[in-house]
Amino acid sequence: MQQTRERKPDWLKISLRTSESFSDIKSMMRGRKLHTVCEEAKCPNIYECWSNRTATFMILGKICTRACRFCAVTTGLPTELDLEEPEHVAISTQEMGLKHVVITSVARDDLRDEGAGMFKATIEAVRARNPLTSIEVLTPDFSGKKELLEIVLEAKPDILNHNLETVSRLSDQVRAKAKYERSLQFLRNAKDIRPEQMTKSGIMVGLGESADEVIDSMRDLRASGCNILTIGQYLQPTEKHLKVQKYYTPDEFKQFKVEGLQLGFSHVESGPLVRSSYHAHEQVEGALKQSHS
Q1: CATH 3.20.20.70 fits 99-292, yes or no
Q2: Which residue from 246, 235, 253, 241 is spatially nearest to 209, judged by alpha carbons?
Q3: Taking Cα atoms as reference points, which of 79, 57, 6, 39 lies closest to residue 235?
Q4: Per-residue model confidence as pLDDT tens digits over 77-114
Q5: How far is CA 267 from CA 53, 77, 111, in A?
Q6: Left, alpha or beta for 183 (phi > 0: left; psi -120 to 50: alpha)?
Q7: pTM score, two decimals?
Q8: Residue 52 clears pLDDT 60, i.e. is over it
Q9: CA-CA distance, 89 to 32, in Å (whole number)?
């Protein structure tokens, strides 16, 4: 007999109501042939974020060369590379009037520079048209190649985000090709290349880790110089993906936030529906206030 998924708790219920802003952003994305991680990764916050005229642009196409067992983004052999994409992102950022823009991508292990050059070009295009907009990039690990990270950091993003995703014990089971220690080294490399660079990372919970393991990962991130931390509930996107092992309560997320701030993170966003770019503008403001206090 086929097993049914465990019912989601009440605190994970979301509004599915659309708005005029939601429709406007969807039309804009289609018109400029842009992709968003909001759609491709089936983010639960898409209705709220798009209604508030915020979105996370996903560059380098919508087909990922990796097959992480938690992620809903399509896996395969990419066939597209739109060289006009940086300018399209810049124009859309301008039209949306964004104060803070988040740019992420699929993994592109098929490319010689794994997409680092497109990240740089997109940052530069966005900044040229939107000089007052802060820019956050959420990048893959570029296979640990420091020289590729240097290409991205040459463009001086305000926030460099790279997600640890899960605890050390589960990393090989959850992620494809990416390695726990490599991700930590990626964040250390960012500080080596550009000491003033603000860095950020995220962890999903509910995959079978213990609370102590989550705190150990938080310690590892702080030791790597990470400034901003996000912690959110893993939600199984399809039957083919890893099953949820536990739904953490809002109070448990609050405790993770307390622990993170005690460890010295400039800002911790922790909650059931938190994702890397959820309330990203508030995250960077909070981190800057903390670092200047």
Answers
A1: yes
A2: 246
A3: 6
A4: 887 788 999 999 999 888 887 888 899 999 999 999 99
A5: 23, 37, 34
A6: alpha
A7: 0.84
A8: no
A9: 8
- Give percent above pLDDT 90 in the chain: 59
Q: Over the stretch 241-281, which tens digit does the pLDDT of each residue have? A: 999 999 999 999 999 999 999 999 999 999 998 877 655 55
120 token code pair: 């740089």
Sign, CA dihedral 19-93-282-248, equals: positive
Structural domain boundaries in the chain: 99-292
Q: How many CA atoms lie within 13 A of 6 on its CB side?
A: 12
Q: Which residue has the higher pLDDT, 78 or 156?
A: 156
Place of tokens 């991508």: 105
Of 199-203, 230-234, 284-288, the poorest mean pLDDT is in 284-288
More confident residue, 276 or 34: 276
Cα end-to-end distance, the chain, whole Å? 58
Q: CA geometry: angle at 203 spanning 201 and 209, to 5°?
A: 150
Q: Band the pLDDT of 2: cuts 50, 70, 90.
A: very low
